[in-house]
Amino acid sequence: MSAASNPDASESFSASRWTRGNFFFPTRLVVSPQHVSRVKPRFFGSNEIVIESTGGTDPITSHGHGKRDAQRIRDLIEQYQTQTR
Fold it and tell me: Domain residues for 14?
């Protein structure tokens, strides 16, 4: 079963603790067939941003992810986009 056919399938990518703003609560990017979320934990709860597929003019940035993770995130998004077309 492919990840696109399984709506619960998702991959999570945590930022390095040694980068700006990630020492105590590293940011996570969660990529699923339905959406991409940027989750920033806090002392109480978390701040989650769901990235819409329409693009938009305001880029979303997330510091501290390695090159391998960034490439995997890009590949997953491209894979999910081509499977839904």
Answer: 3-84
